[in-house]
Amino acid sequence: MTALLQNVFAGLSLGCTYALVALGFVVIYKATGVINFAQGGLLALGAYLGYTFSTSLAMAFAVAVVLACLAAAVAGAAVERIVLRRMVGQPPFAVIMITIGLLFVIEPVITAIWGFENLQVTNPWNIDTVTVGGLVLGVRDLWTIGLTAAAVVGFFLFFRHSDFGLAMRATAFDPEAALAQGISARRVYAVSWAIAAALAALAGITLAAGPGGLSPSIGFIALAAFPAMILGGVDSPTGAVLGGLVIGLVEALTRGYQDHLFAWAGDNVSVIVPYLIMILILLVRPYGLLGTRDVRRI
Amino acid sequence: MADPILAVANLEVVYDDVVLVLRGLSLTVPEGAVVALLGANGAGKTTLLRAVTGLLGPHRGRITKGSVAVAGVDVTGADPADVVRRGVAQVMEGRRVFAELTVEENLRVGAHTRRARALVKESLERVFDLFPVLAARRGSVAGYLSGGEQQMLAIGRALMAAPRLLLLDEPSLGLAPRLVAQVRDIIAEINAQGTSVLLVEQNAVMALSIADHGYVLEVGSVVRDGPAADLLADADIREFYLGAPADGERRSFAEVKSYRRKKRWSA
Ligand SMILES: Nc1ncnc2c1ncn2[C@@H]1O[C@H](COP(=O)(O)OP(=O)(O)OP(=O)(O)O)[C@@H](O)[C@H]1O
Ligand SMILES: [Mg+2]
Questions:
Q1: What pTM was computed for the model?
Q2: Which positions, given as ranges, span the membrane (chain A) (predicted)?
Q3: Distances (CA, A) of A206 to A20, A148, A222, B34, B212
Q4: Which of B85, B109, B157 has its CB closest to that of A166?
Q5: Which residues 142-171 of chain B have a CB within 8 Å of chain A?
Q6: Could you name the CATH architecture of B28-59+73-266?
Q7: Phi and psi of B165, rounded to 5°?
Q8: DSSP E strand stretches across A70-134
Q9: pLDDT tens-digit profile of A57-108?
């Protein structure tokens, strides 16, 4: 029982990372109709900025986190403004290729600035744990869950209740009708990118504070947020969060039990499980658990 | 004389850089007036509204000649948001309500360009006065409203911008005769409260019954215009809009099309 709960806890923490990235995917998809493959790059950028603020500049960790998210948001909006705005009206396929290109541009930029070696982000959590009812809970995991919850709640408050969130939802539903109400589509696009980048940055920093440390490959984690997005439904923010948690849980549980259940399959089953789920979902329910039925995959 | 609320001069619009749709169209809406714009399918009525409100972009359309002025200020090719801020709101063809948002959220979106919350609240009350059905269903998701209610919502949403000029694109389309009459009365009421109106309609009888002045559009230019009463009395117009019965019901699309082939306006 304790082992199960221990795995569930690990899965929640991992799922939060996926949820943040998947939510970013969905925000950009809803606003612009494009799946942003550069999300992993933004995550890495956020993590490295966090390293610079917290370790190189020795700022308080909380300040470093906030600054890194803000800086990533600015970078996200800048990418939208400088690169993607030129692509408005081009076929989604071309725009998606651009985001893939961006991913491959961001990585060398990061290695040029921060190098290839694995870095340790100065953070107050370290490898501390607290023990609750026999469960050993990593402080970093607890914070990851707490910060994700705060970010998700903040996002939904903004998205559902603020005037700009309303404008974003209107634009997502019918861009031309939104334009006719005087909503600036450009601003909606830029803000969507900023939000997605800030969420990814938060995921990146919490991840980099963990046992794996920080290396240029950190962005790969965003790939596993893909199944999360597909599972939840590519146009559903709630679905993204839910999908992220489910994928994280399934992955962690598989990792916990794969030695017993899938011994024949080696010890990497947990890594591919998210993608198996994604393929399954695409086969049986291509619009995801909470997505809109008429969303077409590209 | 004061500047008209809308002055379109010699407007030319091209789609995809090749399809010339408006060919030197000129039209004026005097302050406080209701002006009807009539014309068969494909005449360019919607295109004109897009040109006025800056919405040609998403359709790959472009103004290649001529000008649009709102209350004397040139807005040719301006941003949609600028045009809204200048006091022009549009009820688009096909209603285009935000089906996933609630009635009240739809109305809030209509007030997007306005900052003064007290005034926005006032507009909301005014819309609810005008459309009690919207007040009753303010929390419902717009997609669940009936067609007639959605048309009311689309009009209400446009009013939330507190426009000086309201552009309506075929508001009677697809509505039962009773609702057409209701929409007409509401337009008259909105006008009586001080908003100028440019009413695009294929239902000529309905439109001319509340308009001061009418224009007839064919293949992108004005082929007739005059006081609404004159147009209404005109035998040719009656013939062209044959079947526009006294109760204002619209004929089927196919009828319009086949009729258009038989008779054209242009000399
Ligand atoms: N995006 C576009 N690209 C190319 N041609 C277009 C486009 N939109 C409209 N057209 C063409 O422009 C002409 C005028 O269209 P418009 O929609 O303005 O007519 P309308 O008078 O509003 O017709 P309806 O009564 O059917 O609404 C039509 O021939 C139409 O095919
Ligand atoms: Mg039209």
A1: 0.86
A2: 6-27, 57-79, 91-116, 142-159, 188-208, 239-257, 269-290
A3: 11, 9, 14, 61, 67
A4: B109
A5: 157, 161
A6: 3-Layer(aba) Sandwich (3.40)
A7: -130, 125
A8: 129-132
A9: 988 889 999 999 999 999 999 988 888 877 776 777 888 888 888 888 888 9
